[in-house]
């Protein structure tokens, strides 16, 4: 999901003019209030201080900095900066509402030329020692939620959700397995089970975000803070998102490989709540109808329809080719040496022995074979180590 959003946003941002960000308040907001004026200044200062970076920002409360590596949870999913300052969008403060002893800042990020809204966010201003600081809206939203820790995973779920301890144990077993295969030490993970996709965004602090409402099933992994966001449909064992745990250990991996790996090992939730075989068949039919698509540059084939992102399929197929060629060691070397497009294609040619210009044929044939046999077997990698 992340790769598709990133490509989409890159296309959009290339069309922006470079202008200074404007921060304004919406009509009707009480600007005569001394406290609200302080909060407007606080939020403005934060937006102008490179909030997309992870640093010791003086506008943010210290408790969040101690608890999280990336303390602004609006950045959790990773494809959208909390301020969108990076994309030169303007911000309009819609309301500053008092709730108990805090204030909730609701604001919209928009493009001043097209008036397109990219996000509506909620952030809390809290007073500490007579001075306001920013903090996350999430704790207020999940105040009534329940918490249960199973192994290395701490689950947070809405009150009416029926927690399945057996699935949680399976998730921990899976986490331990991938750590064993890739020779990593398991770390603690916070796992949020939300009602649906829109609830996931709300829990992260968004009232609205670009692309919201386009999909029925989703999940996200906050790589900085080891946080998984899943829907009730995915439940306690969203293996696709759990697989993303290894991403931080392979900073030189091509994004297509990391995307593919999460689907390759994703079981029934490989992509948008469906098993990988389902997506492979859909991509196979599409490729048969579109012979002009050149998979010698697989990163360029990223759009099929709202139900299937072909990157998960092509990435998984390439992971399968690597594993078949030399097992887990070859796959790990691939992950360690494929950051750029040039490195990625060179490894395929030199190490996987797929001749330059033959990748298109190799991927198409393997997708066709799996579709015809009605079977995708990744048991070899699961049995490794």
What would you say this structure looks like, in words?
The protein has 385 residues and is an alpha/beta fold. It has helices at 2-13, 34-47, 62-67, 138-141, 165-181, 197-204, 239-243, 255-264, 276-289, 310-336, 341-350, 359-373, 379-383; strands at 23-25, 90-99, 102-110, 117-128, 131-136, 146-150, 153-157, 189-194, 206-209, 219-222, 227-231. The chain has three domains: 2-136, no CATH class; 142-249, Collagenase ColT, N-terminal domain (Glutaredoxin, 3-Layer(aba) Sandwich); 250-385, no CATH class. Strands 1, 2, 3, 4, 5 and 9 form a six-stranded mixed beta sheet that branches. Strands 6-7-8-11-10 form a five-stranded mixed beta sheet. The two termini are 29 Å apart. It is globular and about 70 Å long. The protein has 13 helices and eleven strands. Keywords: Signal.
């Amino acid at each position: 999901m992340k790769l598709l959003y990133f490509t989409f946003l890159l296309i959009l941002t290339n069309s922006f003019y470079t202008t200074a960000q404007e921060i304004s308040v919406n009509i009707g907001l009480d600007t005569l209030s001394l406290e609200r004026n302080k909060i407007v200044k606080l939020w403005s200062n934060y937006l102008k201080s490179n909030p997309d970076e992870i640093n010791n920002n003086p506008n943010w409360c210290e408790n969040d900095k101690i608890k999280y590596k990336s303390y602004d949870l609006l950045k959790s999913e990773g494809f959208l900066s909390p301020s969108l300052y990076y994309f030169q969008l303007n911000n309009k403060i819609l309301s500053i509402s008092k709730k108990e002893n805090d204030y909730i800042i609701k604001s919209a990020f928009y493009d001043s030329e097209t008036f397109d809204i990219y996000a509506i966010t909620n952030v809390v201003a809290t007073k500490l020692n007579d001075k306001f600081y920013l903090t996350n809206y999430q704790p207020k939203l999940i105040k009534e939620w329940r918490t249960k820790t199973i192994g290395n995973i701490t689950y947070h779920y809405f009150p009416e959700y029926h927690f399945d301890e057996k699935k949680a144990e399976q998730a921990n077993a899976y986490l331990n397995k991938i750590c064993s295969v890739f020779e990593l030490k398991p770390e603690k993970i916070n796992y949020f089970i939300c009602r649906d996709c829109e609830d996931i965004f709300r829990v992260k602090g968004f009232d609205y975000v670009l692309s919201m409402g386009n999909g029925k099933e989703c999940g996200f992994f906050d790589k900085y803070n080891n946080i998984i966001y899943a829907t009730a449909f995915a439940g306690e064992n969203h293996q696709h998102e759990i697989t993303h745990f290894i991403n931080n250990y392979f900073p030189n991996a091509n994004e297509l490989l990391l995307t593919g790996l999460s689907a390759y090992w994703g079981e029934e939730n490989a992509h948008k709540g469906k098993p990988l075989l389902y997506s492979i068949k859909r991509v196979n039919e599409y490729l048969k109808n579109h012979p002009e698509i050149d998979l010698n540059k697989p990163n360029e084939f990223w759009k099929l329809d709202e139900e299937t992102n072909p990157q998960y399929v092509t990435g998984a197929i390439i992971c399968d080719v690597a594993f078949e060629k030399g097992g887990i060691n070859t796959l790990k070397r691939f992950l360690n040496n494929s950051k750029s497009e040039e490195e990625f294609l060179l490894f395929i040619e030199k190490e996987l022995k797929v001749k330059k210009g033959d990748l298109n044929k190799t991927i198409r044939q393997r997708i066709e074979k799996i579709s015809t046999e009605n079977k995708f077997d990744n048991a070899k990698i699961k049995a490794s180590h």
